[in-house]
Design brief:
- The chain starts with a helix and ends in an 11-residue tail after the last helix.
- 80% of the residues lie in helices and 0% in strands.
- Helix 2 packs across helix 9 (181-202), helix 6 crosses helix 7 (141-154) and helix 8 packs antiparallel against helix 9 (181-202).
- It contains 9 helices and no strands.
- The protein is mainly alpha-helical.
- The protein is globular.
């Protein structure tokens, strides 16, 4: 499935390159104050979700770059909570792993392995956290993380492969540098959003796309 997600996303990205480029530039500019990063991320994912709905569900209202500001204003608070808890959990896992790694008490050092597994699992959960927040707007932050956790458990190989694809894309874009970076973040958001969409279709939560891939 991961390869299918990548290929379909690549074709969609090429067809709507203009709006993805614009959303990526807006994301970079509005993230510069740092404190606005969650709101900017909300705007980016909202644009991506609108483009997918426009392309695959043939919605009558066409997605535009102005959707960025709809997402920015409408979801800044919920995305801020997600970003805050993401940061706290990553810091706790990282600090705990280093602490137990340096511990002179041997039984405590055995905890490094499980902590690394938790760190990898939580990293894979990031594939789904932000797209889930847009889909399940009434859910608490805890429920969003719980849904993401069970998605990773139910599709471990697809999740790991997509993480690898995203890492490869990120490395290539940073190696090339320059204008390529103005496409990276919207491409990552597209992969994550489309992955969740396909899973929801497979589960019967939403109808199949009206337009062919």
């Amino acid at each position: 499935m991961a390869w299918t997600i990548v290929t379909i996303s690549a074709r969609l990205f090429y067809r709507r390159l203009g709006i993805f480029l614009g959303a990526n530039v807006l994301w970079i500019l509005t993230s510069l104050p740092i404190v606005t990063l969650p709101a900017a991320t909300a705007g980016l994912f909202y644009v991506v979700s609108r483009v997918i709905a426009d392309e695959r569900d043939l919605e009558l209202e066409e997605a535009t770059i102005s959707d960025f500001w709809v997402g920015f204003r409408g979801y800044w608070q919920s995305f801020s909570w997600l970003t805050f808890f993401n940061l706290v959990i990553f810091l706790l896992l990282g600090y705990s792993a280093v602490f137990y790694w340096r511990s002179s008490v041997e039984p405590l050092s055995w905890l490094v392995g499980p902590l690394i597994i938790l760190f990898v699992t939580f990293s894979a959960m990031q594939l789904y956290v932000f797209p889930l927040r847009l889909v399940y707007q009434a859910d608490s932050t805890w429920n969003i993380f719980r849904r993401a956790f069970f998605l990773v458990l139910s599709r471990p190989m697809d999740s790991i492969l997509l993480v690898i694809w995203q890492l490869m894309l990120t490395v290539v874009c940073f190696a090339l540098g320059g204008p390529v970076l103005f496409l990276l973040f919207s491409a990552l958001a597209l992969l994550q959003t489309y992955m969740l969409r396909v899973i929801r279709i497979d589960r019967g939560e939403i109808p199949p796309a009206k337009a062919p891939a």
